[in-house]
């Protein structure tokens, strides 16, 4: 297993792990920075101090109870549905591509795309808030038109790696896709 350090579009440090299971099977994972206890404590303290200030003004204890419940529920929702710790891509030349997002709470979300549906893996660019950002995406083949694209599936949406990291992932994906294209096709005739 190899690991390289890069920066995300926002400047945060991210790690790219590459594990080669076989010649036609590679796993690429981008790890995002973990949730910092300092920022979590600061946010929680600020919310509770504001609630305490309202409590002093209104002398209503429901304000404190509501602040505690809202921050705890908000934290659970954030950890379970928003904060992604790792995004991985498992490329198996003969089967397909598996995309997995691992949340801070331990929940995982997995999507599998059959290789027969994959037209290509490309690096695309977009303009966002006065700057150009790059992202990796899978182009899905249109069943009705072999030259067309039916859908674009963006990858690493949470970690948003910069171009240098995306190039490494792109090269690994293209190596396996090229093996698939150059592999001898069985005709079924014996």
Walk me through what this model shows:
There is one protein chain. This protein has helices at 37-58, 61-82, 163-182; strands at 2-7, 13-22, 25-31, 84-92, 96-103, 108-114, 118-128, 131-141, 149-154. A hairpin with a 3-residue loop joins strand 4 and strand 5 (96-103). With 190 residues, it is of the alpha+beta class. The protein is 34% helix and 39% strand. Helix 1 packs antiparallel against helix 2. It contains 3 helices and 9 strands; from the N terminus they run βββααββββββα. The longest helix has 22 residues, at 37-58. The strands form 2 sheets. The protein has a 6-stranded antiparallel beta sheet. The protein has a 3-stranded antiparallel beta sheet with strand order 7-8-9, covered by helices on one side.
């Amino acid at each position: 297993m190899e690991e390289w350090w890069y920066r995300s579009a926002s400047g945060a440090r991210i790690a790219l792990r590459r594990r080669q299971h076989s010649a036609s099977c590679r796993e690429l994972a981008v790890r995002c920075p973990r949730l910092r206890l300092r920022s979590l404590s600061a946010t929680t303290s600020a919310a509770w101090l504001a609630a305490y200030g309202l409590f002093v003004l209104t002398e209503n204890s429901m304000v404190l109870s509501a602040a505690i419940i809202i921050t705890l529920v908000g934290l659970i929702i954030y950890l379970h549905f928003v904060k992604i710790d790792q995004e991985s891509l498992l490329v198996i030349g003969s089967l397909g591509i598996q995309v997995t997002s691992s949340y801070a709470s331990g929940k995982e979300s997995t999507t599998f795309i059959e290789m027969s549906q994959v037209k290509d893996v490309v690096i695309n660019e977009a303009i966002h808030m006065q700057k150009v950002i790059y992202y990796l995406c899978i182009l899905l083949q249109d069943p009705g038109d072999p030259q067309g694209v039916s859908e674009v599936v963006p990858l690493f949406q949470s970690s948003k790696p910069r171009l240098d990291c995306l190039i490494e992932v792109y090269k690994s994906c293209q190596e396996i896709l090229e093996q698939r294209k150059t592999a001898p096709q069985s005709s079924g005739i014996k």
